[in-house]
Amino acid sequence: MHPIKITQVNSKRAAGKLEELRKKPNHHAIIMYYRNGCPPCDKMKPAWDATCDKFGKRYKCKTSEIMIANVDPVGLKFLEKMDSKFHTINGTPSLKHSSSAGVVSEFNENRDEENFTNWLQKSLHDVIVDADADDNNKRDERDKPQPQIKMDGGWLKDMFKTRKYRRGRNSRRNRRNRSNRRNKRNRSNRFKPYKK
């Protein structure tokens, strides 16, 4: 499951990413063309942004990559250079649904949240899944009881008898103990009176 990408196409780099997505097989792109200062665009943009935000939180894509792209005039110039035939529009605002099969549908209804949501659901119904359902599946997997390891005394004794778990002769602790015993012996011998 992948989240739905919502991006602003206002540079050459962003336009290149959108065109890269359109060249991939099994892709879906929702493209909204708008122009700042255009009264219909300014009127519909808050409803469109709210719809995209809710849609992105509510749904995830199954296998396809889904991008919702908002294209301003700067981004449109770069897109027209890359593919003038596809990105030709009659006016703004314009909404297109593009997939690997070409232009699938255009939005031609009243510009409000309800119609936007219905159009997105209708256009992408085969490739989206509820995000809550995906989260519930992950939660169920996490809540499954994990296998318990039986730690009885006999098993531990057998484990520590093996060579792997036995403390080696040259372990730090054993080296330190040998060194302490040698130093102690040397100190005691140093002050013993000489016997004839």
Q: Output the structural class.
A: alpha/beta
Number of strands: 8
In N-to-C order, the SSE pattern is EEHEHEEHEEHEHHH
Spatial ordering of strands, largest sheet:
2-5-3-6-7
| Main sheet characteristics | 5 strands, mixed
Model regions low in confidence, pLDDT < 50 over at least 5 residues: none
The CATH fourth-level homologous superfamily of one domain: Glutaredoxin
Provide the CATH top-level class of one domain. Alpha Beta
CATH topology of one domain: Glutaredoxin
Radius of gyration: 35 Å
Number of distinct helices: 7
Mean pLDDT: 78
Amino- and carboxy-terminal Cα gap: 91 Å
- Helicity range of the residues? 40-55%
CATH 2nd-level architecture of one domain: 3-Layer(aba) Sandwich
3D shape: elongated
- Which band does the percent of strand residues land in? 15-25%
Task: Walk me through what this model shows.
By secondary structure, this protein is α/β, with parallel strands linked by helices. The protein has a domain of 131 residues: 3-Layer(aba) Sandwich (Glutaredoxin). The chain has 7 helices and 8 strands. Strand 6 and strand 7 form a beta hairpin. Helix 1 crosses helix 3 and helix 2 packs across helix 4.
What's a concise summary of this model?
The protein has 7 helices and 8 strands; from the N terminus they run ββαβαββαββαβααα.
Describe the secondary structure blueprint for this structure.
Layout: E1 2-3, E2 5-9, H1 12-23, E3 27-33, H2 39-58, E4 59-61, E5 65-71, H3 73-82, E6 94-99, E7 102-106, H4 113-124, E8 128-130, H5 131-143, H6 153-161, H7 172-190
Parallel strand pairs: 2-5, 3-5
Antiparallel strand pairs: 1-4, 3-6, 4-8, 6-7
